[in-house]
Structure formats: structure tokens, C-alpha cells
Write a structure and sequence with these properties.
With 58 residues, the protein is mainly alpha-helical. The longest helix is centred in the middle third of the chain and has 15 residues. It has a domain of 37 residues. It contains 2 helices and no strands.
Length: 58
């Protein structure tokens, strides 16, 4: 019970401060959503694969 209270407080405090495109371990996001978003962004930036583009994973 205490664990859940601490988790909820920390989640509400920090989640809204995260960058929108931060996907790891976030409710409603996750690895699969991150990959889909990256594919969409790369397709747009590379003009459908006709220009080189890069992604930095940090």
C-alpha cells in the first residue's frame, strides 16, 4: 500500500515533466509505441526515404 502511494506521487510529479517523445516505462506508451513513432518521424524527415536522416538514442 505504501509502495503504491509513493509510486503514484512520484508518477504524478515527474511524468508531466517528461519530453513528449519519451516512451520507456510510461503508461500508454512503451517500446512498441516508441518504435512506431520513430518510424513515422523518420519517414517524414527523410522525405519518404529519399534523404538521409539520423536518430540519437540516449
Amino acid at each position: 500500500m505504501v509502495h503504491q502511494m509513493v509510486y503514484q506521487f512520484l508518477f504524478e510529479t515527474f511524468d508531466k515533466g517528461f519530453f513528449f517523445h519519451s516512451y520507456s516505462c510510461r503508461i500508454g506508451k512503451g517500446t512498441h509505441e516508441g518504435v512506431l513513432s520513430l518510424k513515422k518521424i523518420l519517414r517524414k524527415v527523410s522525405k519518404n526515404g529519399t534523404h538521409p536522416c539520423y536518430a540519437l538514442k540516449t
